[in-house]
């Protein structure tokens, strides 16, 4: 899976999506409802790293597979939507 540009995008997209959901559904409620801002600091930093890696993977796939600008835009927008990277994986990357 990690030997191809698409495989790396799928791998990173999965973990970026998980980190986004953990940030939204666990860390943010802990920050505001349990007065535990450290959760957002840790998960947010990890999510930020995975987001950057995801964007680099999208760039690599764009170059290697000559994706259209619409597919690149869809991959970019997917990173900002809960469950977006999972939908992208199912619709675009798997066929």
Brief sketch in words of this structure:
The chain is an all-alpha fold.
Explain the overall architecture.
The chain has 95 residues and is mostly helical. 81% of the residues lie in helices and 0% in strands. The protein is built from 4 helices and no strands. It has helices at residues 5-33, 38-65, 69-78, 84-93. The longest helix is centred in the N-terminal third of the chain and has 29 residues, at 5-33. The two termini are 16 Å apart.
> Radius of gyration from the CA trace?
14 Å
Strand content: under 5%
Low-confidence stretches: none
Query: Tally of extended strands?
Result: 0
Q: Mean of residue pLDDT?
A: 92
**Structural class of the helices, strands and pairings?**
mainly alpha
Shape: elongated
**End-to-end C-alpha gap:** 16 Å
Q: Layout of helices and strands, plus pairs?
A:
Layout: H1 5-33, H2 38-65, H3 69-78, H4 84-93
Helix pairs in contact: 1-2, 1-4, 2-3, 3-4
What key phrases describe this protein's structure?
single chain; 95 residues; 4 helices
